[in-house]
């Protein structure tokens, strides 16, 4: 809200400067050069102020005004990189075999295009070795099946959640 108040004040200042510009033009036509130059100096100051502050206003508006911002372009890539780094470290430390490492990389890259936070968390758990291949596959299928409310309701009605024990 403070940004919108500052923006209104800035816009009012610019409108006032435009009024002064028109008065300066009239003063110039009447022959009062000193008065016209002083009014034009105020106009130039207002224009510079508006141009210098306006990009900052747009940056803050873009980052804070939209509660439903889509961070999916950056978050999954970073998380996938983290999951792959974790899996590579575990392979380098000898915690997983070469076959397990290859399967893990294949699984992580297969689901990389999915930008759901739950899938990102699942990838990270799998990379840390907290889930077996079967658990990962089952949980990933479950997450995909419940991506929308309608799909989740259908899964509950079919009783698919009653059979899982972990």
Automatic annotation (TrEMBL):
<feature type="region of interest" description="Disordered">
    <location>
        <begin position="57"/>
        <end position="84"/>
    </location>
</feature>
<feature type="transmembrane region" description="Helical">
    <location>
        <begin position="6"/>
        <end position="26"/>
    </location>
</feature>
<feature type="domain" description="SHOCT">
    <location>
        <begin position="82"/>
        <end position="109"/>
    </location>
</feature>
<keyword id="KW-1133">Transmembrane helix</keyword>
<protein>
    <submittedName>
        <fullName>Short C-terminal domain-containing protein</fullName>
    </submittedName>
</protein>
<keyword id="KW-0812">Transmembrane</keyword>
<dbReference type="Pfam" id="PF09851">
    <property type="entry name" value="SHOCT"/>
</dbReference>
<feature type="domain" description="SHOCT">
    <location>
        <begin position="122"/>
        <end position="139"/>
    </location>
</feature>
<dbReference type="InterPro" id="IPR018649">
    <property type="entry name" value="SHOCT"/>
</dbReference>
<keyword id="KW-0472">Membrane</keyword>
<feature type="transmembrane region" description="Helical">
    <location>
        <begin position="33"/>
        <end position="53"/>
    </location>
</feature>
């Amino acid at each position: 809200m403070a940004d919108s108040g500052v923006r209104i004040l800035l816009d009012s200042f610019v409108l006032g400067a435009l009024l002064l510009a028109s008065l300066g033009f009239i003063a110039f036509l009447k022959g009062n050069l000193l008065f016209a130059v002083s009014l034009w100096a105020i106009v130039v100051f207002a224009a510079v102020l508006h141009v210098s502050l306006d990009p900052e206003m747009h940056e803050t508006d873009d980052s804070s005004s939209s509660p439903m911002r889509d961070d999916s372009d950056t978050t999954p890539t970073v998380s996938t990189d983290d999951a792959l780094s974790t899996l590579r470290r575990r392979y380098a430390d000898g915690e997983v075999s070469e076959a397990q490492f290859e399967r893990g990389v294949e699984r992580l890259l297969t689901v990389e295009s999915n930008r759901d936070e739950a899938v990102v968390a699942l990838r990270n758990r799998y990379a840390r070795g907290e889930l077996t291949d079967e658990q990962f596959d089952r949980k990933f299928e479950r997450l995909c099946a419940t991506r929308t409310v309608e799909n989740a309701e259908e899964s509950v009605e079919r009783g698919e959640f009653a059979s899982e024990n972990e």
